[in-house]
Amino acid sequence: MEIENIFDYFNDIKIISNHDGYFYSVKEALKILLLGLLCGRKNIREIHEWATEDIIKEKLRKEFGIEKIPCYYWLTCLLKLINIDSLNECFMNMAEALIKEYGTEKPLTIAIDGKTIRSTDKMSSYESPLHIVSAQVAEFGITLAQKCVKGKTNEIPTVQALIKTLNIKGHIIVADALNCQKETAKIIKEGKGDYLLSVKGKQPLLKTDIEEYVQDEILRKQMETACKSEKNRERVEKRTAFCTTNLGWMDNTDEWEGLSCIGAIHSEFKSKKGKSDEWHYYISSRKLTAQQLLDIARKEWVVETMHWLLDVHFREDFCRLLDKNLQQALNIGRKVALNLVSRYKQKNAPKSSLSHIMFKALMDISFIKKILQN
Question: Which segments constitute the Transposase IS4-like domain (predicted)?
Answer without folding.
Answer: 107-340
